[in-house]
Amino acid sequence: MCKEPESWEPQEYLVRFPDGRQVRGSSLKRSESLVPPDFGVYLLGRDPKCTDREYLWVKWRDFSAPAVTEDAVASLREAYRRAAYQRVEVGCRGGVGRTGTALAVMAVLGGVEPDAAVLWVRTNYHPKAVETAGQRRWLSELLPQLGGPENRRSSK
């Protein structure tokens, strides 16, 4: 049985997806001063070695797409699943490009149409989210595969 997630404090960089799940987008530096999540996904060139939370590390260099798409998607699906009952954070060094790109993937899992995901994240998270042409290209190839209702259902 799934329980409701503990509440985040107000104004903690929360993104609420259309299905009601919430995820905190963050930079690692900002995250250190906030309430720790129950679970995090960190998109970095090297393992952040967090000791105060359960997390997954996705190898993802700054201003690029993830090193292994399958690893990134599996980690983001897990974060999305856990957001139904835990406080979940997704973050990178700056909290904008890679984090915004990951939140676009999660937005599609949460009900946003694939072709609207980048604009949705820029409106609901950060106006400069998904910073590079490579990140936009990666999303344009990936999101249509995630976008069907049958794929969304398997993510919940």
TrEMBL record:
<protein>
    <submittedName>
        <fullName>Protein-tyrosine phosphatase family protein</fullName>
    </submittedName>
</protein>
<dbReference type="InterPro" id="IPR057023">
    <property type="entry name" value="PTP-SAK"/>
</dbReference>
<keyword id="KW-0378">Hydrolase</keyword>
<dbReference type="InterPro" id="IPR000387">
    <property type="entry name" value="Tyr_Pase_dom"/>
</dbReference>
<dbReference type="Pfam" id="PF22784">
    <property type="entry name" value="PTP-SAK"/>
</dbReference>
<dbReference type="InterPro" id="IPR029021">
    <property type="entry name" value="Prot-tyrosine_phosphatase-like"/>
</dbReference>
<feature type="domain" description="Tyrosine specific protein phosphatases">
    <location>
        <begin position="70"/>
        <end position="122"/>
    </location>
</feature>
